Automatic annotation (TrEMBL), chain A:
This is Autoinducer 2 import system permease protein LsrD. The keyword Transmembrane helix applies. The lineage of its organism: Bacteria, Pseudomonadati, Pseudomonadota, Alphaproteobacteria, Hyphomicrobiales. InterPro entries: ABC_transp_permease. It is a multi-pass membrane protein. The keyword S-adenosyl-L-methionine does not apply. It comes from Chelativorans intermedius. It is found in: Cell membrane. Pfam families: BPD_transp_2 (PF02653). The complex is composed of two ATP-binding proteins (LsrA), two transmembrane proteins (LsrC and LsrD) and a solute-binding protein (LsrB). Keywords: Cell inner membrane, Cell membrane, Membrane, Transmembrane, Transmembrane helix, Transport. Part of the ABC transporter complex LsrABCD involved in autoinducer 2 (AI-2) import. Probably responsible for the translocation of the substrate across the membrane. CDD domains: TM_PBP1_transp_AraH_like.
Length: 333, 325
């Protein structure tokens, strides 16, 4: 779906500070601060530690998946089945509960199902060379379909009290377990992408898979691992979400995949692969959480907020392209 | 070309085998009257799949078609509820116009701003749904608020078939002519098959994509009226999640997501496959909850099959295949 873009190679690198100032992440921080100030001014209930803590629940689960998804998209693939993996993992946990599983087993089941689904996606994409966008549309129906077959119009409830801690517990004061987990996940993926050879390979694959292959990068294996990690994060999100809601329905986390992708793209990851950063996605996740929370405080219905999310997505992608166009940097068709 | 033909024949054979297997236990299912019902039930999906096919042929994708349908459906339903006097054909034309406008909005962003289509339509998908809520205030337009003529049109029988089926048949015929016999129809294939070569043959790639999106939007607008009048209700979430069914129908029908490959027959058969499965499940006494998993498996099998068939053609040596996905 892409055309080759003419790459602009400067004869002199910009200084560290100007490039930092002009970076996507700086813009995102500015947006985040703006949203924060607007919220604080418009609602007296916003600047309250407990309310802000509640606000983090809006995005932590999606953002965990977004971290892994960022790497996957940078490598030029996509996984649209993440929300369906949540549904299947949650259903499997509910099923395990019926057979008397305790909290440790429930967590293991959730993580395992996530991994297995990720492995299935990765196998289809790398083993057969299929386009991931269609494959994961297929597995999205398949995974959620299995959840529907098992559950129908029923629901699993009655999760143990100590299991609920994963979704409702606090580590210290207003710092929830989910928030800590999300921070750890973000740190892990940040280090993995920006400080390791594996991360460089991910960028290389996204920029030029053939070139990466000829440079000795095991393209298929790296992609497979990325699908595995995305599945694992979906399993983790399923544990948190199930624990938070205390019940499983097959429609759980419906249409989350679009929100996760929006988060990643808003974070400055190129949907065509090859560029992006974890700090960007991190800030984008916080912006989306703040916006959701602020609109909620202002009694704006969620669906109206989706107009804003959609416009934000298009504006954020379109603005830099138009900006380059106005400055006369033409792109070839 | 023979390969393409054989793929549609294979799909048709698969559907026939499916029908035969059902008929073996439940002969009532293959009665002509029932098959006509199945076709009628699939008519809207067929029309939408034809629109999506044009977009996918040009190497784009439209995730906003179902939201477009819902918005156009809501607009015509509200118009009908407030001003019942407007003649129905005019109302349909209006719905098509609104749909084309929404599609053109997608198209202009893809053409002039060069945002990847998946991002554009992901955004407009949520925007369109949001707009429905804003204009309707979250209220439903119920059957009793719609005029009798508004609801009657898709059901009106003509030569033994309801009008809805005739509209789908007309859409299939017109699309087949359009895509095989007009310069624009051929341009869709050229743009998707090799955009660079298309430029050198004098085709404006961006403009062609814009037109594909606009036409797909117009078909979504038409479907909006058909959906709302057929089910006699309009609300924010109608056809929720249907966008992926449309794409799935195209994929099952052998339309390559990498662009340039596909046919009207394939899109129609892909949609019909969905229709047969959906209508057969209750008959053979399998819970309708199986439908999602079955269609998911069908998509995976179809895409695996498509990829194998495309690879065998061996004409993609010089194309940067990775950039296509």
């Amino acid at each position: 779906m892409s055309e080759t873009t003419q790459r602009f190679i400067p004869d002199r690198l910009e200084s560290r500070w100007t490039s930092l100032l002009k970076s996507w992440e700086t813009l995102l921080v500015a947006v985040a601060v703006f949203v924060f100030v607007v919220n604080a001014l418009s609602s007296p209930y916003f600047l309250n530690a407990w309310n802000l803590s509640d606000a983090t629940f809006n995005f932590t689960e999606k953002a965990m998946i977004a971290m892994a998804m960022a790497l996957l998209i940078i490598a030029g693939e996509i996984d649209l089945s993440v929300a369906a993996i949540i549904a299947l993992a949650s259903t499997a946990m509910g099923l395990a509960l019926q057979y008397g599983a305790g909290t440790p087993e429930l967590v293991l089941v959730g993580l395992f199902v996530g991994l297995a689904c990720g492995a299935f996606n990765g196998w289809l994409v790398t083993g057969f060379g299929l386009p991931s966008i269609v494959v994961t549309i297929g597995t999205m129906s398949l995974f959620r379909g299995i959840a529907y077959i098992i559950l129908g119009d029923q629901a699993f409830t009655g999760y143990p009290a100590d299991f609920a801690w994963f979704g409702q517990g606090y580590v210290w004061w207003v710092i929830s377990f989910e928030l800590v987990l999300f921070a750890l996940v973000a740190l892990f993926f940040g280090v993995l992408l920006h400080c390791t050879g594996f991360g460089r390979q991910v960028y290389a694959i996204g920029n030029n898979p053939t070139g990466a292959l000829f440079s000795g990068v095991r393209v298929a294996r790296v992609k497979f691992v990325l699908f595995l990690m995305t599945g694992l994060m979906s399993g983790l999100a399923a544990i948190c979400l199930t624990a938070r809601l205390g019940s499983t329905r097959p429609s759980i986390a419906f249409a989350w995949e679009l929100e996760v992708v929006t988060m990643v793209v808003l974070g400055g990851v190129n949907i065509l692969g090859g560029s992006g950063s974890i700090p960007g996605v991190f800030i984008a996740a916080i912006i989306m959480g703040l916006v959701t929370f602020g609109f909620g405080l202002a009694n704006v219905p969620g669906i109206v907020m989706s107009i804003f999310t959609g416009l934000l997505l298009i504006a954020v992608i379109g603005a830099p392209i138009l900006w380059h166009r106005l400055r006369g940097e033409k792109t070839l068709p | 070309m023979r390969l393409l033909k054989s793929r549609e024949i294979l799909l048709a054979a698969a559907i026939l085998v499916l029908l035969a297997a059902i008929a073996w236990r439940f002969p009532g299912f293959v009665r002509p009257a029932n098959l006509a019902n199945v076709f009628n039930d699939t008519a809207i999906l067929i029309i939408l799949a034809l629109g999506q096919m044009m977009v996918i042929l040009t190497r784009c994708i439209d995730l906003s078609m179902a939201a477009n349908l819902a918005l156009c459906g809501m607009v015509v339903a509200m118009l009908n509820a407030t001003v019942p006097g407007i003649p129905i054909p005019l109302l349909i034309l209006f719905g098509i116009g609104v749909g084309a406008l929404l599609g053109a909005f997608n198209g202009i962003l893809v053409w002039k701003v060069e945002i990847p289509p998946i991002v554009v339509t992901l955004g407009t998908l949520t925007i369109f749904r949001g707009i429905i809520f804003v204009i309707s205030g979250g209220e439903w337009v119920n059957a009793h608020q719609m005029s009798a003529a508004f609801k009657a049109l898709p059901r009106a029988p003509l030569l033994g078939l309801p009008m809805l089926s005739w509209i789908a048949l007309a859409a299939i015929a017109l699309m087949a002519l359009f895509i095989t016999r007009t310069p624009l129809g051929r341009a869709f294939y050229a743009v998707g098959g090799n955009p660079t070569a298309a430029v050198y043959t004098g085709i404006d790639v961006g403009r062609t994509r814009f037109l594909a999106f606009t036409l797909a939007g117009a078909l979504a607008g038409l479907s909006g009226y058909l959906w709302v009048s057929r089910y006699a209700v309009a609300y924010v979430d109608i056809a929720g999640g249907f966008e992926l069914d449309i794409i799935a129908a195209c994929v099952i029908g052998g339309i390559s997501i990498a662009g340039g490959i596909g046919s009207v027959g394939g899109a129609v058969l892909g949609a019909l496959f969905f229709g047969v499965v959906k209508n057969a499940l209750p008959v053979i006494d399998i819970s309708p909850f199986w439908q999602l998993a079955i269609s998911g498996s069908a998509i995976i099998l179809a895409v695996a099959f498509n990829a194998r068939a495309e690879r065998r053609q061996g004409r993609l040596i010089l194309r940067n295949r990775e950039a296509a996905t």
